[in-house]
Amino acid sequence: MISVIIPIYNEEKILERNASFFQRLSGQVELIFVDGGSIDRSVEFAASYSKVLRSEKGRARQMNYGIEKARHDTLLLLHADATLSAGVILSIEKQLSRNGIVGGCLTQLIDKGGVIYRVIEAQGNLRARLSKVFYGDQGIFVKKDVFLKIGGFPEVPIMEDVLFSRKLRHAGKTVVLADKIVVSPRRWERKGVIKTALLFNFIIILFRLGCPLEKIKLLYDDLR
After folding, report:
1. Same domain, yes or no, for 176 and 199?
2. DSSP 8-state code for residue 187
3. Is the pTM value of this prediction over 0.70?
4. Order of strands, sheet of 140-143, starting from the edge strand that comes earlier in the sequence
5. For 37, what's the count of Cα atoms within 13 Å in the CB-facing half-sphere?
6. Which residue range(s) make up the domain with 217?
7. Dihedrals φ, ψ of 17, to 5°?
8. Comparing 222 with 152, which gets the higher pLDDT?
9. Do both 190 and 163 map to the same domain?
């Protein structure tokens, strides 16, 4: 089986909106929510679906804690606003049963019509396939023993997914599955899709230039 870890922080609205998905998922996997100190009803909603753990706030810290408590050998890391079709779990298990494959991610689909969203998806999915660097909203999956061997997610303010997947690609073969992960368009809608897309790309440039992660996090927080 698979353990699915979802870090949450003040996600009451999306947890309520995706109730049917979380209820279905909890019947397929070990579902673990890790709350980082929410002050809304996030814990109440999450607890109605499955297990809720509490840790200090910080996506990397929350995911590491959830994985520490996970019972199964295969891990899937999801954001709270992502959903999957029923067949995705089986696809992940099948891929990780093959020799040499240690992890990967899914193909992202943004839950919104419009050419600009298709361009954003295509850019991210192509980058993942070519570079084997995965973002958290692409649904990273990994064997637990490999995760522990490479040290888990670095507990940094931002870019923990990029830093982790860079290590993962050196631990064995990684893949991008054709199976879809459907993500909410909320982060693009909040500030405007063009502005958000440009700022995300600017953040990546700053990261590659070695800008301190604490400063990059301030830019990212402005989009949340």
Report:
1. no
2. H
3. yes
4. 51-54, 30-35, 2-8, 74-77, 140-143, 101-110, 173-183, 82-84
5. 6
6. 185-224
7. -65, -35
8. 152
9. no
Q: How far is CA 65 from the centre of its chain?
A: 15
Task: Give me the percent of the chain exceeding a pLDDT of 90.
Answer: 89
Closest CA relative to residue 171, chosen from 148, 138, 193, 205: 148
pLDDT band at 137 (very low <50, low <70, confident <90, very high): very high
Task: Give the pLDDT band (50/70/90) at residue 222.
Answer: low
CA nearest to 123, candidates 83, 133, 175: 133
Both 96 and 13 in one domain: the answer is yes
Structural domain total, the chain: 2
Task: Specify whether the CB–CB gap between 5 and 78 falls below 8 A.
Answer: yes
User: pLDDT grade, residue 221 (50/70/90)?
Assistant: confident
pLDDT for 219 = 85
Distance, in Å, from the CA atom of 184 to the CA atom of 214, rounded to the nearest integer, reads 26
Tell me: do 172 and 190 sit in the same domain.
no
Residue type, 161: D
Q: Which positions ≥6 away from 26 have C-beta within 8 Å?
A: 49, 50
Which residues fall within 8 angstroms of residue 130, CB to CB, at 6 or more apart?
Answer: none
Handedness of CA 206, 149, 56, 75 (dihedral sign): positive
* pLDDT(178) > 60: yes
Region 111-130 average pLDDT: 96
Measured CA angle at 43 (ends 41, 74), to 5 deg: 145
Q: What share of the chain is helix, strand, coil (3-state, %, to 5)?
A: 45, 20, 30
Q: Residue 61 — φ and ψ, nearest 5°?
A: -60, -45
